[in-house]
Each structure stands twice: as structure tokens, then as C-alpha cells.
């Protein structure tokens, strides 16, 4: 049946070829037969059956290669999608951290501004208080440079008096003023304060007097004192209160300083040295009230 069909198609092609020749148009018969679905029997006979298998095998290999490439591309695409998701997550975390940092910076700037305002307010209050105290006391401070050149002699039995640059230091030993580890004046120790204060008042009636506390290097005994500075301040305060209550020196002349163990007179390596360093000093400064 197929052979009859091919013969029919060949006859049609021959008829068309003859007609085209009469019309002056040239056609190729064999391409027309191929277009009509017929192959040259001689050509078909010349192709071995294995050629079709080789073509199918080559097409199968090409298909497998394409599938492998498609799988590789799909895997690479999945990896890229995963990395993109990770990058987006990291970017989100960085944005959150940046937002938190900005909030902290704004908060710090606000606290700094408040601190500056508080400091400025405290400075203004301190200046106002100083102005108020100066007006109420109606006094002035002026330097007295002659103190270093002409130091009156102070003699107090049992008390060390020494020149220290521009100031005169009258050492009141703690062991004669206080019981160990306390800031309460002994009843038999106030007499040394009275004697020293009277000598200072006679020699320097208008000078500024510092009541300055000192300790040795040993830490304070367990109790109410957390540091040697606290202990030295408490002892200097006790002497200050006694002096102002007795009226030997005016409160306007006096001020308090707590040195702790920062300024020893001698080494703390011996018991005698520690005893010398535990003291309250009446320090006469070269400035005076007038």
C-alpha cells in the first residue's frame, strides 16, 4: 500500500514537473518527493538499521547531558536562594543593631545634655552661695606675703611647730586628743587645743587657719569609718567644733581639710613614725580676713 502511495506521489511529481517545464519553471523531483513524505528507495536501502540506533543513542545522551545541566543549575539556584535569604536576614539584623545604636546614642546625648545643665546649675548655685556668704560675713580675703618672711614664734609645750613654705603648721598629736579608732575628744586632751589655739590667736589674729586631719597608713578599725579620709575628717571636725564653741578663733577664719594618710611627716615603717603621722594640724596660711 505504501509502495502504491509512493508511486502515486511520484506520478504527481512527474506531472507537476512536466507542467512546470511547459511553464518555464524548473523543479527538482526528488526534493518534492521528500516533501510528499517519500524517500528514495535506493537511499533507504543504503542506510543500515544500526544508524537509527546510533542516532537514538546520541539523542538520549544529549538529553541526559541537558538534564544533568538542568539539575546543576537548579542546585546552584537553590544555593543562591539560600545565600540570598541569609544575606537578607543579616541585613535585617544589622538594621536592627543600627537602630538600637542610634537610640542609645540619642539617649547618651540627652543624658550628657542633662548632666551639663545640672553642672551649670550647680556652679550657679555655688557661686550664688559664695556671694551670699561673702555679703553676710562682710569680709574680704587678701594675701599677706610678709608671713613667710616674718614668722612669729609659737611655743606650745608638747606640740611640734614647723615652717612649711608659706604656711606654719602646729601639730596636735591624735594620741593625746582621741581614744584609738574614735573621733571623740578626751577630757584631758582639750587643754592642748586651748593652749595651741591661744598661741595662734595671739600671733596670727587675722590669718586664715586650716584645721587639717591626718592618719597613719594603717586602715581604720572595723566600725563606722570606711576609710582614713573619713576618720581624718571626723577628727578635724571635732577640733573645729571645739574651737568655734570656745570662741578662741572665729569661724570665718577656719576651714576643714581631710588628708587621710596622703601626707605623712615621717615614715610609717615604725610605731613611732605612725604615732607622729596621726595628727590634727592648725595650719596658718598667708591670707587674712580683714
Task: Write the SSE topology.
Elements: H1 2-23, H2 29-35, H3 41-46, H4 49-137, E1 141-143, E2 160-164, E3 167-173, H5 174-177, H6 190-203, E4 207-214, H7 228-246, E5 254-260, H8 271-277, E6 279-289
Parallel strand pairs: 4-5
Antiparallel strand pairs: 1-6, 2-3, 3-6, 4-6
Describe this protein with a few key phrases.
60s Ribosomal Protein L30, Chain: A, alpha+beta, 6-stranded mixed β-sheet
Report low-confidence residues grouped into runs of 5 or more: 22-38, 135-146
Distance between the termini: 147 Å
Helix count, DSSP H or I runs of 4 or more residues:
8
- Strand content is 5-15%
Q: Mind summarizing the main beta sheet?
A: 6 strands, mixed
Average residue-wise pLDDT: 79
Question: What is the SS-derived class?
Answer: alpha+beta
Task: Explain the overall architecture.
Helix 7 links the parallel strand 4 and strand 5. It is built from eight helices and six strands; from the N terminus they run ααααβββααβαβαβ. 58% of the residues lie in helices and 14% in strands. It has a domain of 130 residues: 60s Ribosomal Protein L30, Chain: A (2-Layer Sandwich), CATH 3.30.1330.60. Strands 1, 2, 3, 4, 5 and 6 form a six-stranded mixed sheet that branches. About 10% of the residues have low confidence. It is rod-shaped. The protein has 290 residues and is an alpha+beta fold.
Quick description:
By secondary structure, this protein is α+β, with helices and mostly antiparallel strands. It contains eight helices and six strands.
